[in-house]
Amino acid sequence: QVQLQESGGGSVQSGGSLRLSCAASGFPVSTNCMGWFRQAPGKEREGVASIGRYGTTSYAESVKGRFTVSRDNAKNTLYLQMNNLKPEDTAMYYCAADFGSCTRLRREYFEAWGQGTQVPSPH
Questions:
Q1: Which residues, including other chains, have CB under 8 Å from residue 35's CB and lie 6 or more apart?
Q2: What residues contact residue 110 under an 8 Å CB cut-off, 6+ apart?
Q3: Spatial distance between the Cα atoms of 41 and 70, rounded to a whole number of angstroms
């Protein structure tokens, strides 16, 4: 059974850092496209970052240079390191899997989703 479970959201100061984790089960993160998305109240779910089977990464312009996506194949876990957090990063963050190669960092290409973890507004 395919499952994705996010964790790591929580209180942070403006300019601070958080690391989100996504534990996957039922499939290997190493051979699939994995992505992070976020959705703020009243807004569409948007792609934040992705990592492909060969390690190629892709980022939204708004997070380039601040966020880093990575994975630990042995733990079958995806990560999102978020540095220099800004108020506009406030959202529910979701991890997702696009089984196979990465196509586009858009919601409609991803087939499995976690329940999300909240990143509140930096204080």
A1: 47, 48, 49, 50, 51, 95, 96, 97, 98, 102, 105, 110
A2: 33, 35, 37, 96, 97, 98
A3: 27
| The two structure tokens encoding residue 99 | 């089984």
Question: What percent of the chain lies above the pLDDT cut of 70?
Answer: 100
- For residue 103, what are the contacts with CB-CB under 8 A and spacing of at least 6? 33, 109
By CB atoms closer than 10 A (0-12, 13-18, 19+), residue 69 is buried
Give the Cα separation of 123 and 115 in Å (integer).
Answer: 25
Confidence at residue 13, expressed as pLDDT on a 0 to 100 scale: 86
pLDDT for position 123: 79
As a whole number, the mean pLDDT across the chain is 95
* 13: its two tokens: 């100061």
Backbone φ, ψ for residue 88 (5° rounding): -75, -5
